[in-house]
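User: Can you help me understand a structure? I only have the sequence.
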Amino acid sequence: YEYTCFWGLQIGLSRMPLLCSHAYSSSAAIASSPSIIFCFVPSWSCSFPFRLFRPVVAASVAGSAGVWCTRARRRLNASSTGHSGWQCHIRGSSYDFRDDGLDVELRVQLPPQICEEPQISSGNILVEAQEKSLSVVLRKSIGTKTLFTTNCLYGRIKPADTVWYLDKNEIFLSLKKVDREIAWPGLLEEWKTLTLGVSKLLKGTSIYLVGESTEINWAVAKELAMGLGYVPLQSSQLLEQSTKRSVNELLRVEGEDSVADAEARILSTLNVHARILVSTLGGAHGAGSRQDMWRNLHAGFTVWLSLSEGIGVNHKGNWAYENADVVVALTEWDNSGHTGAEDCLRALKYLLESQKELPDKKSLYIRLGCRGDWPVIMPLS
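Assistant: Let's start by predicting it. Here is the structure, written out as tokens:
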């Protein structure tokens, strides 16, 4: 086995740990002394969503709280791909969360019945951290008990820099953020934190939903607008108000091309507005299905709510939909639209975190007149 030792030393009355890292390769005990106790936990493969046990050495300084670090030898890709059915769960004790800008601090409260047991120490606690997951497990002679577990942290952390210690009736954890510019509105990536975080990243930029179904576009738009505090607009309703005729009547009398042209004219009047969420017409008669009618859609962030099997499937209109900034594959559908809206938030979050300049670039595109030169914006000359 390969072990990594982290030596924790408490300085004075403060809880600032002095950490020294050493690597060993041996199956036997390496050292022992009256003041420092080493315990070794081997690593083995298992079929759980994430590994609960890693090569870790716990260094406990006598007379002070033990300080542990976990170093993951192999990363588990626990990030969401934006598909429906992404599960976010947390189980265990209550906790307190704080983001100080550089690190994320977490305090997990131990259950009262566990605090009363005198033999509980840092040696009974196992902490496993991955980029998007965290688990705190209590190991006792009769078995293990999960105190805290989640596979959907709001952002990515550096597992190797995770520091924790046991302090009376709670466990204090310090998590290093991969991207320190991103503020965490909460510990978990869920509806409430996603709406707060994505709303800040959008900077008021509008959103357009395109896809094969008008009804699904509108159902998701209403949920998404409610969460973000945007104004929901339905292009079909605006089209009917301007023409005094229903969309079905326009299709029967004028044809698909005329309906698509009329919706494109409606969209051209919306591109100067901020904080609106537009649900477009689905199918072949919608402007989103026409390659040459995306000039005004590029004024906001476009989300393709895909009902097809995947990108590249040559259904009518799909090639134009691939112009969208993000794609959400609706493998499952609930009539409320909440699941689809949450998947849209998650997809937008990943896009905006990786390309923070996009909202400003969208603003420049609008100020230059939405000329269709997206994403390579050309100078006025």
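Now, to help you interpret it: The chain is about 25% helix and 25% strand. The first strand starts at residue 2 and ends at 7. Let me know which part you'd like to focus on.
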